[in-house]
C-alpha cells in the first residue's frame, strides 16, 4: 500500500488524525483544551517535537541497534521536548504557565513515540518529515477544534491572542461544565461520534 | 558481544550529543528565562506594591548575600528618592505549602508599603483569595514594621480570609520574616540604595 508524497502528509489530517482516528495522546487532549490558545500552543509544541524526532530517527534508523531503539527514541524525543520547554519559557512564559506540566509530558505522548516506531524507523527522511508534519498539524487542528467547542460552550467566548471575543453575546449563560474535566470527555466523545458518521471510503 | 558494544556506543553518543545541545540552549536562554519569571511571577506583585514609582520597576534591582541565600531586592523611586524596596519571602504553614509573598517596605518611614502573593498552592476560592482578592492584602498597607503582624484570632489586626486562617497566618508570618530580614540587612541595603541614587 504505497502512498504518494501528498498522501503521506494529508493522512494525518483525516485518515490517521491522532486523537480521533488513532485515539492516541489523549492526556494532553483532555487536559489542555480549556481554551483555543492552549490547544494551539500545545499542538505546535507537539508538532515541532514530532517533526524533529521523526527526521532524526529516520536519518539514524540504520545506526540504531534494534534492541535499544526505544531508549534511543526516548533520548531523542526528550531532547527536543526540553528544547521546546526552554524556548517556551524564554519567549512565551504566560503560555508556559498555562500548559505547565503537559509540556514535559510530551516525552511520554504515545503519538510521538508511535510515529518514531511505526513510521520513521522504516521510512526515508523526507517521508518521515511529511508524516511528522501531517500528524502534527492534524493534532493541532483536533486540539483547536475540541478546545473551540469547549471554550465556546463553557464560557461563551473565544480567546485569540489574549483577546476574548464574545461570540454568543453577554446574555449567554456559560455552560461551565464544558471547561471542567468531565466536559472534555463528553466533547471528545461527541466529536468522535460525529466523525464516525462520515462514511469511510 | 559486538552488538552489545554497538548498543553502548550508539546510546552514549546520542546521550552526549543531546546533553551538549541542551546545555548550550540552556546557557543561551538562562537570562531571558530569569527575566520572564520576574516579569510574570513577581512582576505583577511588584508593580502593585510599588505603584506610582517613577523608575523602571522590576528592571531596577540588586542582590545582597544573606548567609547562604542571595536575596533580590527591587527598588522603587518615589519623589526622586530610592526609598522603597520590595523583596520576596516565603510564609511557612500555608494549607498547600509555602506561600510566596512580595513585601514592599518604605525605608524612610519604616513601614509596609504593601504585600502581594506571588506563588502559592492554596485552595481556589478559599486560600487562593490571598492572591485574587485585593481587600485582604490591602490591610497590610502602611502598617508599622516595629510590631509583629497577626490575624485577629491571634490577637492582631488582620482580618483573616474566611475559611483560610492557615493561608492568612502564612501571609502574616512571611511579612514578619520580611521585617526581620530588613532589620538584619538594613546597613547593606542603605549602602546599595545610596549607590543606586546616581
Description:
The complex is a heterodimer of chains A (201) and B (198). Chain A has 201 residues and is mainly alpha-helical. Chain A has one domain (5-197). Chain A is 65% helix and 4% strand. Chain A has helices at 5-10, 18-22, 26-32, 36-59, 69-91, 93-99, 110-120, 125-155, 181-197; strands spanning 157-160, 163-166. In chain A, helix 5 (69-91) crosses helix 6, helix 5 crosses helix 7 (110-120) and helix 7 packs antiparallel against helix 8 (125-155). Chain A starts with a helix and ends with a helix. The mean pLDDT of chain A is 85. Chain B has 198 residues and is of the alpha+beta class. Chain B is globular. Chain B is built from four helices and five strands; from the N terminus they run αβββββααα. In chain B, strands 1-2-3-4-5 form a five-stranded antiparallel β-sheet. The A-B interface holds A 63-65, 67-68, 71-72, 75-76, 78-79, 82-83, 86-87, 89-91, 93-94, 97 and B 3, 6-7, 10-11, 14-15, 18, 21-22, 25-26, 29, 32-33, 36-37, 39-40.
Summary keywords:
heterodimer, A: 201 residues, 9 helices, B: alpha+beta, 45% helix
Biggest beta sheet summary of chain A: 2 strands, antiparallel
Query: Could you say which overall geometry of chain A the principal axes of the C-alpha atoms support?
Result: globular
Which consecutive residue ranges of chain B, at least 5 long each, have pLDDT under 50? none
Order of helices and strands of chain A: HHHHHHHHEEH
Main beta sheet of chain B: 5 strands, antiparallel
**What is the helix tally of chain B?**
4
> Biggest interface between protein chains, with counts per chain?
A-B, 21 and 19 residues
Structural class of chain A: mainly alpha
User: What's the mean pLDDT score of chain B?
Assistant: 84
Describe the structure concisely.
Chain A is mainly α. Chain A is built from nine helices and two strands; from the N terminus they run ααααααααββα.
Topology:
The complex is a heterodimer of chains A (201) and B (198).
Chain A: H1 5-10, H2 18-22, H3 26-32, H4 36-59, H5 69-91, H6 93-99, H7 110-120, H8 125-155, E1 157-160, E2 163-166, H9 181-197
Antiparallel strand pairs in A: 1-2
Chain B: H1 2-49, E1 61-66, E2 69-78, E3 81-94, E4 97-106, E5 111-117, H2 129-132, H3 134-138, H4 165-197
Antiparallel strand pairs in B: 1-2, 2-3, 3-4, 4-5
Amino acid at each position: 500500500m504505497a502512498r504518494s508524497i501528498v498522501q503521506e502528509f494529508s493522512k494525518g489530517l483525516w485518515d490517521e488524525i491522532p486523537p480521533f482516528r488513532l485515539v492516541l495522546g489523549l492526556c494532553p487532549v483532555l487536559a489542555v483544551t480549556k481554551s483555543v490558545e492552549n490547544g494551539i500552543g500545545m499542538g505546535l509544541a507537539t508538532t515541532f517535537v514530532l517533526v524533529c524526532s521523526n527526521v532524526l530517527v529516520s536519518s539514524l534508523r540504520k545506526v540504531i541497534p534494534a534492541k535499544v531503539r526505544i531508549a534511543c527514541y526516548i533520548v531523542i524525543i526528550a531532547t527536543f521536548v526540553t528544547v521546546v520547554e526552554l524556548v517556551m519559557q524564554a519567549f512565551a512564559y504566560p503560555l508556559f504557565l498555562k500548559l505547565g506540566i503537559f509540556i514535559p509530558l510530551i516525552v511520554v505522548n504515545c503519538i510521538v513515540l508511535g510515529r518514531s516506531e511505526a513510521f520513521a524507523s522504516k521510512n526515508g527522511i523526507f517521508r518521515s518529515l511529511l508524516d511528522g508534519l501531517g500528524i502534527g498539524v492534524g493534532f493541532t487542528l483536533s486540539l483547536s477544534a475540541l478546545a473551540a467547542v469547549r471554550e465556546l460552550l463553557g464560557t461563551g467566548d473565544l480567546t485569540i491572542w489574549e483577546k476574548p471575543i464574545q461570540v454568543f453575546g453577554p446574555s449567554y449563560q456559560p455552560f461551565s461544565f464544558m471547561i471542567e474535566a468531565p466536559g472534555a470527555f463528553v466533547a471528545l466523545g461527541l466529536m468522535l461520534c460525529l466523525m464516525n458518521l462520515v462514511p469511510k471510503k | 558481544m559486538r552488538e552489545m558494544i554497538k548498543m553502548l556506543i550508539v546510546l552514549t553518543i546520542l546521550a552526549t550529543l543531546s546533553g551538549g545541545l541542551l546545555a548550550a540552549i540552556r546557557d543561551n536562554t538562562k537570562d531571558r528565562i530569569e527575566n520572564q519569571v520576574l516579569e510574570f511571577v513577581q512582576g505583577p506583585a511588584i508593580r502593585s506594591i510599588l505603584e506610582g514609582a517613577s523608575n523602571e520597576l522590576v528592571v531596577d534591582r540588586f542582590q545582597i548575600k544573606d548567609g547562604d541565600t542571595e536575596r533580590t531586592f527591587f527598588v522603587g523611586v518615589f519623589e526622586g528618592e530610592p526609598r522603597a524596596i520590595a523583596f520576596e519571602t516565603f510564609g511557612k504553614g500555608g494549607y498547600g505549602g509555602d506561600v510566596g509573598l512580595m513585601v514592599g517596605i518604605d525605608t524612610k518611614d519604616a513601614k509596609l508599603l504593601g504585600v502581594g502573593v506571588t506563588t502559592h498552592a492554596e485552595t481556589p476560592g478559599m486560600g487562593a483569595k490571598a492572591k485574587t482578592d485585593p481587600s485582604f492584602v490591602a490591610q497590610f498597607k502602611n502598617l508599622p514594621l516595629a510590631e509583629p503582624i497577626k490575624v485577629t484570632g491571634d490577637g492582631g489586626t488582620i482580618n483573616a480570609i474566611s475559611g483560610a486562617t492557615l493561608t492568612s497566618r502564612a501571609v502574616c508570618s512571611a511579612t514578619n520574616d520580611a521585617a526581620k530580614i530588613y532589620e538584619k540587612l538594613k546597613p547593606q541595603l542603605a549602602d546599595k540604595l545610596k549607590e543606586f541614587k546616581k
